[in-house]
């Protein structure tokens, strides 16, 4: 394993609808377009103005809702949903979101994408006061803090609670009267709000999910914002004004779908520029350029265009396989890689192949793909990575090159990545969190500081 860096956030997908008769089905469609963000569990909570109803389970969205009655039972004109990839908490049903809390006087549902860096400390403090947690993830900490607050209104309780947590987070809360959205002070993960033709609102981790339900983008949620959507409309407030944009650079490199726009920047176009910058920085003696499907295809096309070499489909992916990076165990990741890719012998035979991949996170695929291409007749395989080397990599570039069996190995520079994404924000990283690559975290790690 080349990398054991812990993100400040989980890569999950969240979705919410307010003001649509078929809110349950819209949420299902939205989550389906966010399935790439989490494959371990899924769930939906609906609201009919009187009661919140939930269905959630382990597995892919289509598996969770394989019986139509499970989705049909979620009646109401508002709903929130979640697809889960876990970095904090075990993969068990109790951790599948949304989480629904039944109190004597109210119900609250919560969908969370993030990782709270002071969750261990907060959970210990709350447990000492008698609080009992339903899950082993850190997601429900916020609701416990809300219930602890003596502030007079729910809105003020939210602000007080949000100011006690640290790290990266996207929250969508659902009550009988409102859908509440909150983003951390650095905006580590993207979150967008759209509007349906009937005037209803949609909130989603990525704009591709807005497109999937026919919603038009009206704004991106900004760091520190606290937004309440109800029958009165949308009210924008802030839980803090001490903000500085540092969106996770891996959203542009790998996490997000290429048809999504993040803060006005198309993901495919950014990846294509990464490939072009990589070609300028690290040319290779090749005959063809091949991308690793699917998340590397944009970068590979950019590399080919900038280098003047033909872009070829030298690898074919089984489209019914998931993303091996987010498989929960090493064994499952390796099995996934073996089953999902095949080399096109007629394309790569007797060719010097420049193989473009988006990143090396664990290194599970690289050695296998290089050998796959050489077994198919490639005379050379030059590996080019359209992102910088991870700070937590345990091997040097030369050691990795030898381990993968590639003829050369080069990474995109940090400056090349920043230029390709092109966010117009404050220095030094133009509004990007680059901690994966240089260890410069934009926030304290608190409970994780010893692991920095």
UniProtKB/TrEMBL annotation:
Function in brief: Catalyzes the formation of phosphoribosylamine from phosphoribosylpyrophosphate (PRPP) and glutamine.
Domain Glutamine amidotransferase type-2 positions: 12-232
Cofactor dependence: Mg(2+)
Entry's cofactor comment: Binds 1 Mg(2+) ion per subunit.
Pathway info: Purine metabolism; IMP biosynthesis via de novo pathway; N(1)-(5-phospho-D-ribosyl)glycinamide from 5-phospho-alpha-D-ribose 1-diphosphate: step 1/2
SUPFAM superfamilies in the record: N-terminal nucleophile aminohydrolases (Ntn hydrolases), PRTase-like
Positions of the catalytic residues: 12 (nucleophile)
Organism: Companilactobacillus formosensis
Known EC number: 2.4.2.14
Family: In the C-terminal section; belongs to the purine/pyrimidine phosphoribosyltransferase family.
Keywords: Glutamine amidotransferase, Glycosyltransferase, Magnesium, Metal-binding, Purine biosynthesis, Transferase
Binding sites annotated in the UniProt record for Mg(2+): 295, 357-358
PROSITE patterns: GATASE_TYPE_2
UniProt-recorded Gene Ontology molecular function terms: amidophosphoribosyltransferase activity; magnesium ion binding
GO biological process: 'de novo' IMP biosynthetic process; purine nucleobase biosynthetic process
Gene3D superfamilies assigned: 3.40.50.2020, Glutamine Phosphoribosylpyrophosphate, subunit 1, domain 1 (3.60.20.10)
Protein name: Amidophosphoribosyltransferase
Catalytic reactions of this protein: 5-phospho-beta-D-ribosylamine + L-glutamate + diphosphate = 5-phospho-alpha-D-ribose 1-diphosphate + L-glutamine + H2O
HAMAP family, per database record: PurF
Keyword Glycosyltransferase: yes
């Amino acid at each position: 394993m080349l990398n054991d860096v812990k993100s400040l956030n989980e890569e999950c997908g969240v979705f919410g609808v307010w003001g649509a008769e078929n809110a349950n089905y819209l949420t299902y469609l939205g989550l389906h377009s966010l399935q790439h963000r989490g494959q371990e569990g899924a769930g939906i909570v609906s609201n009919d103005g009187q009661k919140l109803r939930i269905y959630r389970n382990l597995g892919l969205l289509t598996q969770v809702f394989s019986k139509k009655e499970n989705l049909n039972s979620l009646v109401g004109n508002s709903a929130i949903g979640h697809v889960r990839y876990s970095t904090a908490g075990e993969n068990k049903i109790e951790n599948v979101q949304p989480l629904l809390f039944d109190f004597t006087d109210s119900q609250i549902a919560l969908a969370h994408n993030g990782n709270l860096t002071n969750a261990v400390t907060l959970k210990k403090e709350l447990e000492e006061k008698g609080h009992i947690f339903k899950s082993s993830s850190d997601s429900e900490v916020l609701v416990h803090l809300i219930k602890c607050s003596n502030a007079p209104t729910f809105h003020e309780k939210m602000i007080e609670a949000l100011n006690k947590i640290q790290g990266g987070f996207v929250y969508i809360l659902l009550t009988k009267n409102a859908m509440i959205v909150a983003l951390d002070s650095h905006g580590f993960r993207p979150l967008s709000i759209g509007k349906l033709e009937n005037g209803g609102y949609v909130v989603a981790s990525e704009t591709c999910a807005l497109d999937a339900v026919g919603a038009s983008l009206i704004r991106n949620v900004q760091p520190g914002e606290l937004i309440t959507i109800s029958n009165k409309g949308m009210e924008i407030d802030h839980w803090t004004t001490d903000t500085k944009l540092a969106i996770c650079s891996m959203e542009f490199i790998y996490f997000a779908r290429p048809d999504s726009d993040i803060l006005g920047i198309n993901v495919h176009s950014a990846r294509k520029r990464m490939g072009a910058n990589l070609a300028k920085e690290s040319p290779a003696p090749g005959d063809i350029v091949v991308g690793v499907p699917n998340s590397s295809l944009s970068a590979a096309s950019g590399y080919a265009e900038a280098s003047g070499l033909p872009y070829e489909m030298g690898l074919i992916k089984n489209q019914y396989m998931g993303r091996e990076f987010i498989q929960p165990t090493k064994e499952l990741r390796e099995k996934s890689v073996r089953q999902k890719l095949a080399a096109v012998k007629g394309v790569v035979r007797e060719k010097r192949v420049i193989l473009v991949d988006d990143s090396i996170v664990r290194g599970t695929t690289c050695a296998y793909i290089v050998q796959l291409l050489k077994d198919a007749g490639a005379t050379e395989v030059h590996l080019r990575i359209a992102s910088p080397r991870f700070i937590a990599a345990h091997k040097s570039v030369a050691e990795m090159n030898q381990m993968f069996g590639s003829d050369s190995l080069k990474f995109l520079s940090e400056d090349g990545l920043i230029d390709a994404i092109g966010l117009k924000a404050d220095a030094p990283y133009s509004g990007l969190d680059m901690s994966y690559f240089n260890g410069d975290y934009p926030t304290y790690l608190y409970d994780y500081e010893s692991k920095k």
